[in-house]
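Let's practice the habit of predicting before peeking. Look at the sequence and jot down your guess about where helices and strands might fall. Then scroll down.
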Amino acid sequence: MPIPFSCPRCGHSTLVDDRYAGQTGPCAKCGAQITVPSPRTAPNPGPAQPSQSPPSYPQAGYPQAGYSQAGYLQSAYPTGTPPARGSSSWVTVLVILGVLGAGVFLVLLIVGALLFPAVGQARQAARRVQSMNNLKQIALAVHNYADTYKYLPYAGAEDREYGLAMSGRVRLLPFLEQRIIHDRVNYNEPWDSPANQWLSTAMPRLYGSPMQPPSTSNTTYLAIVDSLKVPAGDDTWDRKRPQPIFSQDARTVSFADINDGTSNTLMYLESDASESVGWESPRNWVFDERQSRRGLGMTYGRGFLSAYADGSVRMVENSVADPMITYLMLRNDGNVVFQP
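Done guessing? Here is the structure:
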């Protein structure tokens, strides 16, 4: 049986099931704590009298207390765990940081792609300058050798005649500030004898081209030598025959024998790796008019470096015609080629 009663604070009248007699809960209108009376003590519901005090209102942000249709007292406060605050803001920050990081990474990739070719070209230019300096030092050593002995150094002879089975590069060591190595060499033995085998791993850094993989034994700085070999003791060879400065035998040549001019005649060159030799061996670049570009021009892609007899170092471009290269390699053919 429903129990009629009025809130003593705001005068709000309502009916509550008698099962809730004697229980306390908030008023559905003003939220004040009220006790449901028993049927015997329930006052006669009459016209609601206005309260002498102003009504109070529920706390902002929460629903009013009341009773459901089933008659159960409803709580005026929310139940359960409140939602975590601030989690969405952290997600936003992480997303922003991720986007910024990806943008920076992309910018670095673009900058790297733009700078990589320029860096590669700068490194190649620096290596070319270093190689030119190496050839320059070799050419000056040849001049100093000639000033001392009145003729150019022997390039070497694999036939082991006259004790020439040793590279001219070894003979130049005192003029390249490498006398310590020079003085240890046994010139009565060939370059590959047990007494001189230590030379194979004692190559001065000057003979190593920065354009080639590092090596302690092989060099690509080679003298240009004549293909003709004059037998020992033969003094009848044709001195007017067109030929390079150096030979593979005991012929001696002075700068006065360079009839085409020292500034127009090649002396040493830098070959491709395919033509590299042991630095202490008497092997060099053998001139062949039919193969005037053999093993040349691939290291730099546009030509090969060469030291002229006057001591200058220049690049012979791949665009130079084959006959012109032949003229440059011969010291007395009468064909003068002026290189810029």
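How did you do? Residues 130-329 form one domain.
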